[in-house]
Amino acid sequence: METQYIRVSFxxxxxxxRIHKNHLFSTLPTPSCSSNRVSLNIRSFSSHILITKRxxxxxxxxxxxxxxxxKSNIRRKxxxxxxxxxxxxxxxxxxxxxxGLVHGDIVVLVTNKHxxxxxxxxxxxxxAVIVFPKRKEAQEIFSAEDLVTTLRSHKIDFILLAGYxxxxxxxxxxxxxxxxxxxxPSLLPAFGGKGYYGMKVHKAVIASGARYSGPTIHYVDxxxxxxxxxxxxxxxxxANDTAEELASRVLHEVYRRYSETxxxxxxxxY
Length: 270
Description:
It catalyses: N(1)-(5-phospho-beta-D-ribosyl)glycinamide + (6R)-10-formyltetrahydrofolate = N(2)-formyl-N(1)-(5-phospho-beta-D-ribosyl)glycinamide + (6S)-5,6,7,8-tetrahydrofolate + H(+). InterPro entries: Formyl_transf_N (IPR002376), Formyl_transf_N_sf (IPR036477), GART (IPR004607), GART_AS (IPR001555). By secondary structure, the chain is α/β, with parallel strands linked by helices. The chain has two domains: 3-55, no CATH class; 75-266, Formyl transferase, N-terminal domain (Rossmann fold, 3-Layer(aba) Sandwich), CATH 3.40.50.170. Helices cover 30% and strands 23% of the residues. The chain has seven helices and 15 strands. A seven-stranded mixed sheet has the order 9-8-7-10-11-13-14, covered by helices on one side. Strands 1, 3, 4 and 5 form a four-stranded antiparallel sheet that branches. Helix 2 (88-98) packs parallel to helix 7 and helix 6 (199-208) crosses helix 7 (243-266).
């Protein structure tokens, strides 16, 4: 029997909601819920059920309590952010470290463009900026091994890519196994790989006629956008959408999802 999914919203703590489409739980439900929303896995059957929010045990609420409890006993992690552009995602991550959503501190920013907006913002905040890779005409040679050595000297625990357009060298991936995350602006594996970045992704999504898009957060491996997926968020592609409009909608979810995922990632929940 085909499994269906239904989302039930509660408008108060005691108000019951009746499901009228003759459904029955296929297993004992373990709902995922926020303050006013519960998601349940159910399958079709000839019956109906009555649900009240009081009758449900919210697993996410339990996880949140444990997460907050553990934070006081674990040191804050040192983070390195890799950026190529203006750094809107980088700024969002920085704010998340300040408000406690991410239990860590950004101590290094790595960029391939020394004069990009993200680099200027980092310098203003007292964050060390490393240019990698450097231009071919640069007098100093700074290899991938040098980058690893520098990050280790800063005691970096995790690396977060936030719009970094260069392929991560294998030396770095080997030095930080399962410790590098990337955010990609499409629902991978669709519209991923070399050449798919920034506005190019959104233009390709619209040109394909796809009805949905959204950000993907995944581990980084030695190829473009092929690492294991940790989280995705679906957003609709609306009729007559421009690439800029779709990008704005996806970016809104990026801000929410990336910091949330990083918070769990740092505590080895994945």
